[in-house]
Design a protein that fits this description.
The chain is mainly alpha-helical and 108 residues long. The protein has 5 helices and 2 strands; from the N terminus they run ββααααα.
Amino acid sequence: MANLHRGEIEARLGGRAYRLCLTLGALAELEHAFGAEDLVALAARFEGGRLRARDLLTIIACGLRGAGASLSDDEVAALAHSEGLPGYVDVAGRLLAATFGEAAPTRP
């Protein structure tokens, strides 16, 4: 079960329940992927609420790996969400909110 106090969330992807967490290693992976100089720049990048599909993939993949899943980006890209695009946005938004606080983008 996910522990929100540790920044963990749960999501159902590809018909399976997963735990996601942006650990320090996952955050470092995100900094590198987005070319952010530091965590403040990374958080600022997400505060605008504008995410590309590739951004969603990267955030979700890093969160899955941070929680211990051994999945490549290609494997994560193949995981369907029952709600389609809005579902992926929800997962990424909840994960960012659990990590950075409520200022992160969330689904309305």
